[in-house]
Design a protein that fits this description.
Blueprint (H helix, E strand, L loop, with lengths): L2 H32 L3 H16 L2 E7 L5 H9 L10 E2 L2 E2 L4 E4 L7 E6 L9 H4 L7 E4 L5 H8 L5 E5 H6 L19 E5 L1 E7 L3 H4 L2 E7 L1 H6 L1 H10 L2 E7 L6 H11 L6 E6 L11 H19 L6 E3 L2 H10 L2 H7 L1 H55 L1
Parallel strand pairs: 1-10, 1-11, 4-9, 11-12, 12-13
Antiparallel strand pairs: 2-3, 4-10, 5-6, 5-9, 7-8
């Protein structure tokens, strides 16, 4: 995590809280001066509360095994000296995972059983039903306990194929999924439907929320993710593998769930280290990466400036080892720059304009009222002097 990214998030949080305090002070001043009606009080209170609770949401979207979790580790948690989220081969997050910080609760991992898909309640509603979640307390001071607890994100379970089809976890008509059917009529499915990680990280405490969404099946089975969560994210990082480029399933996710549905989206070609070839010069390797990036931009119909080439694994290793040259070569700094100098300022401006629309009319009324009161006071002073 670069110092610039940390500073930008901290400044964004500080400005947001200052603005909320100013609105609260303004409401108190209005009430002291001549009282304000209940509707205005409620509007100002809602605006201030919304500012205090506002989150900067960055979603990571891709098919399985594209390195989303490793990129999250590299961007935000490399300074911990280890992987926070599990991203070893064959052991990656199996369910949508939301990372945030809540000072009102103990650090914890909350897991929603996959069987809740049979129920009619939405994810938003289930988040307010603690009894439905399995809760594991986290100890931020114990790296081993933290790592072992978060391995639960990789858990799977066996389920009868009929039930998996009913829950939208397996498609018997898809030839690419038929090999998953076992001899006993079961298939392996994620053990959890959704996970929430409440962790006291400085970026998360400053108002950043990270969403890790794995795979086409997970997106297709959770309409809320594609209808509200991803479209409402302030930035979407769409990951692809550099060696394969845009596959058929990658393109399907892009067209259905990201393109035209997200506020700010970029494509990230991960695993560029697979193209690092000791038998080729640096310029030849760079030319190969550039060709893949240009082809990706063409297929996804994105400007070339919205396609980034990185190696999340090398970036994480470089930060942990203090290898500045490897970190630069990994390409991670371009993504950090994007978040710090484009995504966060864009969100700050959006929030400023939204608050301005809400409060500007009241401020104009206050100015007119103050001008009238000053005029009356001035007239009365003139009359007193004449007397």
């Amino acid at each position: 995590m670069s110092i610039h990214l940390e500073q930008e998030v901290a400044e964004y949080s500080e400005r947001r809280l200052r603005l909320a305090t100013a609105i609260t002070d303004y409401a108190d001043w209005l009430d002291r001066q001549h009282g304000i009606d209940a509707e205005r009080t409620l509007r100002l209170a809602d605006t201030a509360s919304g500012l205090r609770q506002d989150k900067l949401v960055v979603a990571f979207v891709a098919e399985f095994s594209r390195g989303k979790t490793e990129l999250i580790n590299a961007l935000f948690f490399a300074n911990h000296g280890q992987r926070l989220l599990p991203s070893d081969p064959g052991r990656t997050t199996m369910c949508p995972t939301e990372l945030f910080a809540s000072p009102d609760e103990m650090p914890s991992l909350c897991l929603l059983p996959i069987e809740t898909r049979r129920r009619s309640e939405s994810l938003a509603r289930l988040k307010h039903m603690p009894v439905e979640w399995c809760r594991v307390l986290l100890d931020p001071s114990d790296p081993r306990q933290l790592q072992e607890s978060l391995k639960k994100l990789t858990e799977t379970k066996s389920m009868p194929a009929v039930d998996a089809i009913e829950l939208g976890l397996w498609n018997s008509e898809d030839a690419s999924e038929r090999h998953l059917l076992r001899a006993d009529g079961t298939v392996e499915v994620p053990a959890w439907r959704y996970a929430m990680v409440n962790y006291p990280h400085p970026l998360l405490q400053a108002g950043l929320t990270i969403l890790d969404t794995p795979g086409l099946n997970a997106l297709g089975a959770e309409p809320e993710l594609t209808l509200s969560v991803i479209p409402n994210a302030h930035a979407v990082m769409y990951l692809l593998a550099t060696d394969t480029g845009v596959t058929r399933s990658d393109l399907e996710i892009w067209q259905k769930h990201v393109h035209r549905h997200a506020n700010y989206h970029v494509a990230v070609l991960n695993k560029i280290d697979m193209l690092w070839d000791e038998l080729k010069s640096d310029s030849e390797v760079q030319a190969s990466i550039e060709r893949q990036a240009e082809e990706t931009a063409r297929v996804l119909k994105l400007p070339r400036s919205r396609v980034f080439a990185v190696s999340a694994q090398k970036a994480l290793a470089a930060t942990i080892r203090g290898d500045a040259a490897l970190r630069v070569r990994s390409g991670i700094e371009s993504l950090e720059y994007l978040l710090a100098h484009q995504v966060i300022p864009a969100r700050r401006d959006m929030l400023y304009h939204a608050v301005s629309r809400e409060v500007a009319a009241l401020l104009d009324e206050s100015r007119v009222d103050l001008a009238a009161r000053l005029k009356r006071s001035s007239d009365e002073l003139i009359q007193l002097i004449q007397l």
